[in-house]
Amino acid sequence: MSLYIVSTPIGNLSDITLRAIEVLKTSDLILAEDTRVTNRLLNYYGVQKPLRAYHDHNKEKITPHLLEMLRDDKNVALVTDAGTPGIADPAFYLTRASIEENIKVIPIPGASAFLTALVASGLPTDRFIFENFLPNKSAKRKKILESMLSEPRTVIFYETPHRINKTLLAMKEVLEDTRIVIARELTKVHEEFLRGDAAFLLKHFEKHPPKGEMVVMFNVRIKNSETEQM
Questions:
Q1: DSSP for 89-155?
Q2: I need a labelling partner for 147 at 20 to 30 A (CA). Which of 18, 54, 174, 230 fits?
Q3: Average pLDDT of the chain, as a whole number
Q4: Coil vs helix vs strand at 42
Q5: For the segment 69-112, what is each residue's pLDDT rounded down to a tens digit?
């Protein structure tokens, strides 16, 4: 019948819409990137529906069966670990396949980590680009950053705690005193926004080892000063 793309909280379980809860409770099947993570959410809201893993390692294998279910008038809800499905996760694969089969795809809006970070960053929000994760290899990462030196829009990407220092070293070399904002642990108890140039942020993480998934943002038009670092 319909594939529902259901946004879920990025941290605080209260950040879910009433409509999302209703869709999860009435769907015939819930697909989750990590069933352990989603189980906590479903148990919290008393949702008792079949739950199945859907991730990069099995999407090609099980998608035909899911399309068959949808053609058989079943409602399927697709969630990711946190936030809006289809952003840096495999939801796009099933969404595109459903559209090609003329199956109705219904988005259920809600939390998004990079939008949540952006609106509290203090950086320009009128125009922005999202780069997902930067490349693992240092040469490619540096090349991407260099390509952004003429980018007038605010740049947003995700980063992990074990890679952030390497990324900041590259940003220090390429972006110099550009103001950078890092948002971590959004909507959780230890939510934090760090603002400063790359050199300042590297010093911060020397004293405070990085933890939690991060959203990194900058705009090359906005430069930093020592008095602004916080």
A1: STHHHHHHHHHHTT-EEEEE----HHHHHHHTT-S--SSEEEEEE--SSHHHHHHHHHHTTT--SEE
A2: 230
A3: 95
A4: helix
A5: 999 999 999 999 999 999 888 899 999 999 999 999 999 999 99
